Amino acid sequence: MPSLILTGHPCIGKTTFAQLLSSRALNHPSNTISHVIHIRESTACPDQTKAECYSNSNMEKNTRSSLKAEFDRAVMSCNSNGSTSSTLVILDSLNYIKGYRYELYCISKAAGERHGVVWIMSTSDELAKKRNANRKEVQQKKQQIVDHATRVLEEISNIENDGYYDNDKMMNELVLRYEPPDIKNRWENPLYKVDVSVLPWGKDGTSTSKDDEMKNKKEDESSDLLVTNQMKDMNVKDETSQSSSDTIPPKPTEKKSASGFKRRTKKSSAMQQQQTTSSKSQPKVTRQLEAPAAPSSIPSSMASRNLKPDASEQSNGDGVVDKEKKKIEDVIDTILDSFLTDTAPLQEGMSTLNQISA
Question: Residue 28: which domain range?
Fold first, then answer.
């Protein structure tokens, strides 16, 4: 059965992406997927929260082994039942270790099924930290006011019980230990990159809200007004300074005569006339203030080092990349089209093949 491995930083939107991916896979025009198995920490370790799963190194090791065991059971059970092409397995976790992703690749290879990696990334981790803080606050409120007013229950009914991390320190440590996937590795090929900062989206697959767009427009207009006002002020100052320099004649400098030789103190009248005519013929040059360059946003995420333009980013004649704004559902459809049609099943090698005795 085909399997997709989701990887990325914590609280970046992997679970929401996995849910959209599963719904789009069931409704794919090819009708090759009839069932989806979604594996994550809440299913592999149901008696532990996400913070407990990554509280220390021993718990991390147990969590990884539980996720790998459930992934192995799902792949092998579907392979033994003969429903290899009709079930899609999605492993929704951090998967931040390169060797761990190789072990998952070996499981799919032993089953002789298709295998792919989806890298969910973003150029900033501030949104992930805010989302984690919101989850923590909501989960704490939910535990305290379960038996309270129905209005509060309606507000938190749509919130997912995806768990949260205790503090930002734990998230920073997980980010530092994250090893980004590389398309050069055969166990991470094909690799599908989804940058949520370039393609913002919500739970329903829509783009940014209208309020954010209006705020961005207002900020751009205000910045343009500031730049034009500064240009006008600089032009006025340059013109006044040049006019004052033209009207006030320069003070004659006293030339000291050295001992031992004579210095020419006066210039000829013809030379003075040539200099005055050349200075009048030259036009006045006014300096214009160039628009300040946009500050280079230094991303705090390690994922931005491997960002490359996708097929949706078309370059114009000047070599500038234009990024199209589209829904995340379209991105998921392109991933499914490529994975279900162009990706060939893996074949087990001679080193891991079961040798049948004579």
Answer: 3-209+300-314+324-341
Structure tokens, 138 = 């909501």
Return d(Cα 4, Cα 88) in angstroms, integer: 8
In angstroms, the CA 257 to CA 252 distance is 15
The burial of 284, by beta-carbon neighbours within 10 Å (0-12 exposed, 13-18 middle, 19 or more buried), is given as exposed
CATH number for the domain spanning 142: value is: 3.40.50.300
DSSP letter string, 129-188: HHHHHHHHHHHHHHHHSTTS-HHHHHHHTTS------S-HHHHHHHHHT-----TTSGGG
- Residues 18 and 6 sit within 8 Å (Cβ to Cβ): yes
Task: Give 154's pLDDT tier (boundaries 50, 70, 90).
Answer: low
* 3 state SS of 202: coil
- Say how many domains are in the chain: 1
pLDDT by residue (tens digit) across 161-195? 667 888 889 999 999 999 999 989 988 888 998 88
